[in-house]
Amino acid sequence: MQTEIFSETFPLMSTANPQTLEWLLNVAIDHEYPAGRAVLMEDAWGNAVYFVVSGWVKVRRTRSEDSVALAILGRGDFFGEMAILDESPRSTDVVALSPVKLLSISRERFIQILFKDPQLHHRMLQLMVRRLRQVNLRLQMRSSPPAVKLAQTLVSLGESYGQESENGKEIFNIPYKDLAEVTEIGVEETTKIMSKLDEKGWIKIDNANQVVYLVNFKQLINLAGKV
After folding, report:
1. What is the distance between the alpha carbons of residues 43 and 39, in angstroms, rounded to a whole number?
2. What is the DSSP letter of 227?
3. pLDDT by residue (tens digit) across 18-42?
4. pLDDT at position 66, please?
5. Where does the record place the Cyclic nucleotide-binding domain (predicted)?
6. Cα(80)–Cα(73) distance, integer angstroms
7. Would you say 45 and 79 are in contact if contact means Cβ atoms under 8 Å apart?
8. Are residues 163 and 121 in the same domain?
9. How many domains does the chain divide into?
């Protein structure tokens, strides 16, 4: 991957200087995983930071044999940065929802470059604060109607990872169980709401290609705003 593409793909790298980008790419390790494969086990947090080059993953909390999806991440996002900073144990893992390509940078190398490039350090803090705001928004919306909460999840996924197409923003057709858990509503509710949004023409579900088109993004934003 060229440094320009690296910078464009990952918002975290948008302010890093060219020397930083080149150095990171030289020490990064490529990974490829099929759908359904665990890409980061709970006992491996803190070893590296991972960047999603392509595909979709879910972060899930594990308890015995049960698991709950906490977040969905797509191209351009990263994970593992909190664990390398606080070094506390994690009861979460990361699983590929689709075929996925990742880059990993070891804990030692990443911390080393944070000290060398203050712009990168500052940018990471900005993105971490943004994530905290998203968590706060989810907490504020817990009492909102299921349709409003699901619309907010779809809008967030579209804004963060959606690819522009002639049918609107294109996102992965996330399994309804995972979509429901991230939104904190029931699977049956998720199925009904997604079907209704499809009937209204606000979204278009393409099961054959495993994608969802957010056709009427403005209407979804309006629905998500009805708190």
Report:
1. 12
2. -
3. 899 999 999 999 999 999 999 988 7
4. 82
5. 12-131
6. 12
7. no
8. no
9. 2
